[in-house]
């Protein structure tokens, strides 16, 4: 499926394909058809409908968010012979000539190639003449930030007080490069990135109309990859449709040229456990499938960002557009990383990305070397690496003091062994405190839970997050009942290390041994019996 017109010979003569790329075919024709920019289109419709037009507009925003489309729609609306509620009719001679690109009074300029002072002077000479056929002469200047300083100076006076029949529409993806003197003379609109759900809806609408078979999950992946740009999303949809088969997740990943999101998550798990075989296997699979390591590298960076947000926010599902399964998966991955490690790894990933852009033929070597260094902090002499080693050592020592069994990685094993003698000489084991038994077994709210939760967060923040909204009760004789979310409760019951951390913290706080702590877990929303016995049996 070709996206450009092509010519071929035949016995009848020469034929010209009339095929248009999907993003051109589905370009919005009025303000109501523009996706995700209702705040801007509502204002423009009001100004057109009430004849309160500005002499100069500035449209800012990332690519594919509707800047040029809105500029063309505005040019049609101000010249339309039969406008309706601020929208062009798309049927009159003026609208049709602008759509066809033959209207001499609507001039589109690319500032990337027409950025000199002479180009501005030529435009100023044209402005002196009234429009030939339309009511307004409209100048649409795309990528205006690329104009030279002299060209901007020459444009200033004209932009401030143009003739009443002239309207300027400037579009840019880098508004910070524009002189403030230019910005202050325009009515500015900032186009935001289009929401994922809006892009998905548009892709499904186009697919249905064009007879393209696509799954909703595949549409979601395309929307994510496009990063808020509708044009990029539609172009990628067209590229996938060229396979002439059902578009699913696997096809989208193959078309993008990288491993899927699951591969990025598997990479993070492998990094967390220093699983070198898995790390090298994932990189090898991408290379052998002719994938682009730079694209996959960006997915790893994005995955680190997702993990960081999940680790620090209870509203991560909203911010990251995650399903419940994806959120649970990221929460599990986050438990293997501290904030210091996430920060350190992100720095290394960004440095490696810059190296890949400079040394295109060495991407695989850069990737594998960087990932190896990320697994072993001893391979780096940076301050961040040293701080991370100290933090991990302190956490391990703290868990050993609480009597929590720890699985030491090969990297930290040597440091932990070195630290053990200091622990033995300095640690003072608290004498077990005599606990008054409560014969009646009555439960009361445990007052020390707040301080215990803080200590748990210091040892493992992802574990403390699971206790959000939890209530803890005790009978005063070592029995502690945790009423918490069913999902995290099951996870805590199945993880001996996490359960040992909770017991160790409470035992240290109460001044008793871990063996005297008995923890019962209940679903706070649904009364659930603890593992092995019922709650009634415990208090008989």
Can you give a write-up of this model?
By secondary structure, this protein is an alpha/beta fold. The N terminus and C terminus are likely disordered. The strands form three sheets. A five-stranded parallel β-sheet has the order 4-5-6-3-7, with helices on one face. The chain starts with 6 loop residues before the first strand and ends with a helix. The protein has 25 helices and eleven strands. A hairpin with a 4-residue loop joins strand 9 and strand 10.
Radius of gyration: 32 Å
- Helix segment tally: 25
Straight-line N-to-C gap: 76 Å
CATH H-level name of the largest domain... which superfamily? P-loop containing nucleotide triphosphate hydrolases
CATH class categorisation of the largest domain: Alpha Beta
Using the alpha-carbon principal axes, give the shape: elongated
Q: Could you say which structural class the secondary elements and strand pairing correspond to?
A: alpha/beta
Please outline the major beta sheet: 5 strands, parallel
Q: What share of the residues lie within helices?
A: 40-55%
Beta-strand content bin = 5-15%
Q: What number of structural domains do the residues give?
A: 4
Unreliable stretches covering 5 or more consecutive residues: 1-15, 410-440, 527-540
């Amino acid at each position: 499926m070709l996206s450009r017109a092509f010519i071929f010979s035949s016995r009848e003569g020469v034929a010209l394909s009339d095929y248009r790329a999907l993003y051109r075919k589905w370009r919005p024709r009025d303000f109501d058809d523009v996706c995700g920019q209702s705040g801007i289109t509502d204002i423009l419709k009001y100004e057109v409908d009430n004849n309160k037009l500005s002499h100069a507009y500035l449209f800012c925003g990332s690519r594919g968010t509707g800047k040029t489309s809105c500029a063309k729609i505005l040019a049609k609306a101000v010249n339309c012979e039969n406008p309706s509620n601020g929208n062009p009719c798309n049927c009159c001679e003026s609208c049709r000539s602008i759509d066809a690109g033959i209207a001499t009074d609507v001039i589109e300029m690319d500032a990337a190639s027409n950025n000199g002072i002479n180009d501005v002077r030529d435009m100023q000479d044209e402005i002196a003449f009234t429009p030939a056929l339309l009511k307004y002469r409209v100048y649409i200047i795309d990528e205006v930030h690329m104009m030279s300083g002299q060209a901007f100076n020459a444009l200033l006076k004209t932009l401030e007080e143009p003739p009443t029949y002239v309207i300027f529409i400037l579009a840019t993806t880098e508004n910070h490069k524009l002189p403030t003197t230019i910005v202050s003379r325009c009515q500015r609109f900032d186009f935001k990135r289009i929401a994922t759900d809006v892009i998905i809806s548009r892709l499904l609408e186009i697919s249905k109309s064009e007879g393209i078979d696509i799954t909703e999950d595949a549409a979601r992946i395309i929307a994510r990859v496009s990063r808020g740009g509708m044009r990029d999303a539609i172009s990628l949809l067209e590229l996938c449709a060229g396979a002439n088969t059902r578009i699913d997740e696997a096809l989208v990943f193959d078309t993008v040229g990288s491993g899927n999101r699951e591969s990025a998550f598997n990479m993070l798990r492998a990094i967390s456990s220093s699983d070198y075989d898995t790390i090298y296997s994932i990189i090898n699979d991408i290379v052998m499938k002719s994938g682009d390591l730079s694209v996959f590298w960006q997915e790893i960076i994005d995955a680190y960002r997702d993990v960081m947000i999940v680790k620090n926010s209870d509203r991560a599902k909203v911010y990251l557009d995650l399903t419940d399964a994806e959120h649970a998966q990221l929460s599990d991955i986050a438990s293997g990383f501290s904030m210091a490690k996430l920060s350190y790894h992100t720095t290394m990933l960004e440095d490696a990305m810059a190296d890949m852009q400079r040394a295109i033929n060495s991407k695989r070597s850069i990737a594998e070397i960087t990932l190896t260094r990320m697994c072993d902090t001893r391979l780096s002499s940076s301050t961040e690496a040293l701080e991370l080693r100290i933090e991990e050592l302190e956490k391990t020592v703290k868990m050993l003091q609480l009597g929590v069994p720890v699985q030491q990685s090969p990297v930290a094993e040597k440091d932990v062994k070195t630290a053990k003698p200091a622990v033995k000489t300095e640690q003072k084991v608290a004498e077990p405190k005599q606990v008054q038994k409560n014969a009646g077994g009555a439960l009361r709210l445990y007052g020390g839970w707040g301080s215990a939760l803080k200590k748990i967060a210091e040892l493992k923040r992802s574990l403390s997050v699971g206790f959000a909204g939890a209530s803890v009760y005790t009978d005063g004789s070592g029995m502690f009942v945790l009423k918490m979310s069913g999902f995290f409760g099951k996870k805590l019951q199945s993880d001996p290390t996490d359960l040992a951390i909770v017991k160790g913290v409470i035992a240290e706080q109460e001044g008793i041994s871990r063996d005297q702590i008995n923890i019962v877990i209940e679903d706070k929303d649904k009364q659930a019996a603890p593992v092995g016995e019922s709650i009634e049996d415990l208090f008989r």
